[in-house]
Design a protein that fits this description.
Radius of gyration of chain B: 36 Å
CATH superfamily of the largest domain in chain A: Winged helix-like DNA-binding domain superfamily/Winged helix DNA-binding domain
Strand order of the largest sheet of chain B: 1-3-2
Strand content of chain B: under 5%
Number of domains of chain A: 2
Structural class of chain B: mainly alpha
Distance between the termini of chain B: 37 Å
Shape of chain B: flat
CATH topology of the largest domain in chain A: Arc Repressor Mutant, subunit A
Largest sheet of chain A: 3 strands, antiparallel
Strand content of chain A: 5-15%
Oligomer: heterodimer
CATH architecture of the largest domain in chain A: Orthogonal Bundle
Largest sheet of chain B: 3 strands, antiparallel
Distance between the termini of chain A: 71 Å
Shape of chain A: globular
Order of helices and strands of chain B: HHHHHHHEHHEEH
Number of strands of chain B: 3
CATH class of the largest domain in chain A: Mainly Alpha
Strand order of the largest sheet of chain A: 3-5-4
């Protein structure tokens, strides 16, 4: 490994949070962005190819060294680190809607999920996965929510565009036009 | 969400009877479904019916049955969906006007919501997979060194040293200070008599009629407790016409009669 890659490795090891590429570049004033990028590639390859128990991951707006999954159970059993709690189905549903439709208000989420989401929104907010990003122009100017960088980090996403696009999902997301839907349903043969 | 109030009449006839006696307590968590749409989708899947051509009557029945068996009878979200299904079922029964293009399938809106919901569930599956993947990998955690416990060397101490230390401490320890706690009587019974006397004279009294201004702390406390006690027994009624106004003490006629 070249010396820049080693410097980046040390910085990533010392940092408690993911470090974005431009911050890593600031470690060495001489290094060009391309050199930083290739040093990162070298470090990642070093971990992957030379048989390391950690890997270099680009998520949550920055680079991070993570342990590989096969060691998780042993580490957790020995109580050296603890996995974060799993999100409930209700929380995941709400989070999915916020991620795809942000900025989104509580009413719209409740319309789609068919249940009250007040407490779920609160706990997602407390976990730092969503945040208030503005207010709607609608009556009462309700709060609008969006996802945070902690969301990206907890789902190992570089950016929101890494989520599957809605047209890649099996069902078209917004079938708003009732005409189209009526055609699909085939009103004539309704029972 | 409560369940198990046995007397609640069921609007759903036979299905209500199926819920039967014997269920107890409280439904706090829903075991399988994260909402009425989830339950509805599960039924559509279980029954292998076409989402675009839902046999509303059958699904509606099953929905209500499932609601009862999960003791969701009083969960508003589920009740609302049940009502919606019944309405669609009723609309399907109505004769259609001859101009067939004017007829809109009453199921359209429901299908739209189901599709929307189902798509969200697909996203949930994606998120679940990604989240689980990330959960299984640990990042470096950073603990400021001031928070890490300092490890001390084992103590080297003989029994003699320990006893000498105890002796020193005992010699230096001052005589303990002993406080006498004097109990101040709170005379609730006495004040109950005073309050009764006051409201016997007047229909509406005030707190200062019971406890004169400048009264001692124990008198204020006793007066307050006496008022609360009498209000509890139903002998008087306490009311405050507006915030921060003086509290009105009124004789309770019903209480006297009882």
């Amino acid at each position: 490994m070249n010396s820049l890659a080693k410097l980046l490795e040390a910085a990533l090891f010392a940092s408690p949070r993911p470090i974005p590429t431009d911050e890593l570049a600031a470690l060495d004033a001489e290094a060009s962005p391309a050199a930083v990028q290739s040093a990162l590639d070298e470090l990642r390859e070093h971990y992957d190819v030379d048989g390391h128990a950690v890997e270099l991951v680009d998520a949550g707006g920055g680079w991070q060294i993570l342990t590989r999954p096969e060691y998780t159970e042993a580490i957790e059993r020995a109580q050296m680190a603890q996995r974060p709690r799993r999100l409930s189905p209700a929380a995941l549903e709400t989070l999915a809607l916020v991620a795809y439709r942000q900025p989104i208000g509580r009413t719209e989420i409740e319309e789609i999920r068919g249940v009250d989401v007040g407490s779920v929104l609160k706990s997602l907010h407390e976990r730092g996965l969503i945040d208030v990003v503005g207010r709607s122009e609608a009556l009462g100017r309700p709060l609008l929510y969006g996802t945070t960088s902690a969301f990206l980090e907890q789902f190992a996403l570089r950016h929101l565009e890494e989520l599957p696009r809605t047209d890649e999902l099996a069902i078209a997301l917004r079938v708003r036009e009732s005409e189209t839907l009526a055609e699909v349903i085939g009103t004539d043969e309704a029972s | 969400m409560t369940a198990g109030t046995p007397a609640a009449p069921s609007p759903f006839g036979a299905a209500g009877a199926a819920a039967g006696a014997g269920e107890t307590g409280f439904v706090v968590d829903l075991p399988h479904y994260s909402g009425p749409l989830d339950l509805l989708l599960a039924l559509i899947r279980d029954e292998k019916v076409d989402i675009y051509d839902i046999p509303v009557a059958r699904i509606c029945h099953q929905f209500i049955d499932r609601m009862h068996s999960l003791k969701l009878d009083e969960a508003a979200d589920y009740l609302e969906m049940a009502a919606r299904l019944l309405r669609i079922k009723a609309q399907m029964l109505l004769p259609r006007p001859d101009g067939e293009e004017a007829w809109e399938d009453p199921r359209t809106e429901l299908v739209r919501r189901l599709l929307e919901y189902q798509q969200m569930r697909e996203v949930v599956d994606v998120l679940e997979r990604l989240g689980e993947d990330r959960r299984n990998r640990f990042a470096r955690t950073f603990i400021p060194s001031s928070l890490t416990p300092v490890v001390h060397a084992p103590l080297a101490l003989s029994l003699g040293e320990l006893l000498a230390a105890v002796d020193r401490v005992l010699r230096h320890a001052q005589q303990p200070q002993i406080h006498d706690v004097i109990s101040r009587p709170i005379d609730v019974d006495g004040f109950i008599e005073i309050v009764r006397a006051v409201i016997a004279l007047r229909a509406v009294a005030r707190f200062r009629d019971v406890v004169p201004p400048g009264a001692e702390r124990w008198e204020v406390l006793s007066g307050l407790l006496a008022l609360l006690e009498l209000a509890r027994r139903g002998e008087l009624r306490l009311a405050q016409p507006r915030p921060f106004a003086a509290v009105e003490i009124r004789r309770e006629l019903a209480g006297e009669a009882a």
